[in-house]
Amino acid sequence: MIARHALSDIRLIAVASVLAVTLIYQLPALPSPAWVLLPLAFCLFRFPGRTLIAVVCMVAAATLVQARIEMANRLPVAADGKIVPVSGAVVGLPETGPYRTRFEMMSDATGRRLRLSWYGDAPTLAPGDCVQLKAKLSTPHGSANPGGFDYTGWLWRQGIDATGYVRDSQPCRAPPRWSIDRLRYQALQRLAPILAQRPMRGLVEALSLGVRQHITDAQWATLRATGTTHLVAISGLHIGLIAGLLFALVQWLALRTPAARQARRVAAIAAMAGALGYAALAGWALPTQRAVIMAAAFFAAIVVERDIGAGRSLAWAALAVVLWHPASVIAPGFWLSFAAVGWLIWIATLVDGAWWRKALYFQLGLVVVLMPLTLWFFGQASLVAPLINAVLIPAAGVVVPCVLAAVLAALIWPAGAGGWLLAKVAAGLALVWPGLEWAAQWSLASFHHVLPGAVALGCAMVGLLLLAVPVPIRIRALGVVLVLPAVLGWRPGETTIARPHFRVTMLDVGQGLASVVRTAHHTLVFDAGPAYRTGFDAGAMIVVPYLRRMGRLHVDRLMISHGDMDHIGGAPAIMAQAEVARRTGAKSGAPCRAGQHWRWDGVDFDVLYPTAGEAAQAGDSNEHSCVLRIHAPGASALLTGDIEAPGERALVANANGRLASDVLMVPHHGSATSSSAVLLGAAAPKVALVSAGWHNRWGFPRPSVVARYRARDIPLFNTATAGALLVDWPAPHQPRVARWRDRHRRFWQQPRPGG
After folding, report:
1. Terminal CA-to-CA distance of the chain, rounded, Å?
2. How many CB atoms lie within 10 A of CB 730?
3. pLDDT tens readout for residues 500-512
4. Contact assessment for residue 241 and residue 393, using Cβ atoms and an 8 Å cutoff
5. Contact 525, 543 (CB under 8 A)
6. Residue 573: CA count within 13 A, CB half-sphere
7. Residue ranges of the chain whose pLDDT lies below 50
8. So what's the pLDDT on residue 613?
9. CATH class name, domain 503-743
10. Which residues does the UniProt record annotate as the domain Metallo-beta-lactamase (predicted)?
């Protein structure tokens, strides 16, 4: 039985509060805060655990109230796609690229935070600048796919109330508004002449000012492969280093003054001031805020001269973080940072002996015990990370202060000694970087592995914990057993596909098309989704993560229906990041031709269109699209690409009655020039799937097309509102379509699940 004093322990209260907020952030809809009034009313009476229940109820109520306020401030769906005048000031640091400038602004009229793109020749924008624009706004939304990045959740965490792009602008003569970000921008401009031609520019700016836009893709790849991305994200490690160094230095100085009796208190105040200053210099981003709150909890105990213990300080920090920013619980950094600090605290009390023994447990634990969380959030981990971090984390205690000192010196005297010192520091980083690149190129440096579920994650965390701590060998053996579900890829929610069946997944790639067909042992990718020069690549960001999640990174065939960018754009990324055995269709040495056939695991694949003559006439247009029919006993699907009415008529004429299918991929995203009556009559589908972008500019699927399907009582499922569409056959010729948004609904997501 738990003692009464244990129920009021801040550590238990913090854990319960974090779990309560996490539960709220898993809900499909927000309940009323009034639901917590009843348990809170019971706390008026004395009983064991009253403090625990009261605090958790108040934290839950605060979370619900804050979430409702933020939801109310978002751009409503009814206003999505409208061009409206907006005026306000730029907030944060704009990101300038070759094709667009992306920036955030605070609207004066609505108080909404807008994330906008300015394409073409955008003016130079600085934080605090007044802007007066006409912008096409959208409610925050993103693609919804298994294994994909939750862009909508990221926008929610950043407090973005609407996204969009600039259509027109007018001069705004209001004076710039002062902000910390404006000072950071001016600092970047002052450092630019010194760092512009330096390969380590991005790293120097990241370590000092929290700006990572000049870190190249190749450098990011090296950091990910070596497990060192955390070293360039100003968070707990960096704040802790600066605060710790200041604490030690000020305490050493204070002990030599008449204020020696207050040395620890003075040092704690100085360290906290330094942590706040560094956080402000770095932009006060969410990870930095968490780090400052954690540091404040530790130093507050010193200031008030109460030895509350490291574990309780961490608990106070966790409680403060979820009160300050409840959405932190859906950020990977929250769990990684608190798990890392918690591990260090636990090992410090558990492991005795020489300093090197503690250091070994610290480093092994940080990497090995956190590996399941890294795999859960990112699907990638590094095998060389323990060795590299064992060197670089201690080195950061020297590198980070040196970079900061050089940057401050360069800001004061850029043309003199300050600029020279910063250039030398950047050159020093460039000298050691090739060693990191060499480690990243090792074939086993990093690996991808998707944990199959929350149960496997929990088992792996406990199992690795037992393996990493000094416990009896029999208990460590239990740790091996607990790790096995994650290692073997046990997937309780993903049953195997038996011969001769197949499954179809139409991924949500926006305005484009990418589908995956899986048989018992083979995988077909039909179209690869779009890729844009601004950086979005559906192949890398949606298709490959889905394949990893399904454990199907080996692609037996990549078939591209035709050469439009919204179908072929992601193909190079899939070829580079997956094991593609064969590529066919557009832009390949094996174009589609009617009559091509193959069989996998008892499932037949037949190319029905185009014929050789039609392909020669159509070239690489929509009319050249590959049409593929997949059929097995009791199941069939017709994949159509972007064929239009003339191609549909030719398809029906040449198919000799072989078009009847349970599932039809709606041609050309539901354009008015497709889905003709002759095709619908010949295919006679039971369900139809359309891949279209949310509120796309062409209005796909067109109302006239939707009406054609409704007239024939054919249910129409749209990725724009449903997210990824997953099709299987629980009974012969009875396809079942699952909407990914329905399976993983969250209250902040837009658009809402449906149709």
Report:
1. 51
2. 7
3. 999 999 999 999 9
4. no
5. yes
6. 23
7. 1, 616, 618, 754-755
8. 66
9. alpha beta
10. 511-694
Q: Which string of b and e fits 35-71 if b means at least 16 CB within 10 Å? A: ebeeebeebeeeeebbbbbbbbbebbbbbbeebeeee
* The token pair that represents 626 in the structure block: 């590959």
pTM of the predicted model, to two decimals?
0.89
Distance in angstroms (rounded) separating the CA atoms of residues 413 and 421:
10
H/E stretch holding 663: strand 663-665
Q: Could you say which architecture CATH assigns to the domain 77-178?
A: Beta Barrel (2.40)
Task: Write the CA distances from 168 to 97, 98, 696, integer angstroms.
Answer: 19, 19, 20
Query: For position 507, what pLDDT does the model report?
Result: 98
- Give the whole-angstrom CA distance, residue 555 versus residue 234: 38
| Residue-level pLDDT at 291 | 83
**685-744 pLDDT per residue, tens:** 999 999 999 989 899 999 999 999 999 999 999 999 999 999 999 999 999 999 999 988
Amino acid, single-letter form, for residue 380: Q
Per domain, the residue ranges of the chain are 4-73, 77-178, 234-332, 454-488, 503-743
- The single-letter DSSP state of residue 667 is G
Give the H/E segment covering residue 475.
helix 473-488
Residue type, 11: R
Residues 6+ apart with CB under 8 A from 389: 227, 228, 363, 366, 367
CA distance 278 to 90: 22
pLDDT for res 367: 67
DSSP sequence for 277-326: HHHHHTT--HHHHHHHHHHHHHHHHHHTT----HHHHHHHHHHHHHHH-G
Burial of 282 (0-12, 13-18, 19+ CB in 10 A): buried
CA distance 466 to 456: 15
Q: What is the pLDDT of residue 755?
A: 44
Phi-psi group of 284: left, alpha or beta (phi > 0 → left; psi -120 to 50 → alpha; rest → beta): left
Hey, which residues does 627 pair with through a beta bridge?
A: 609
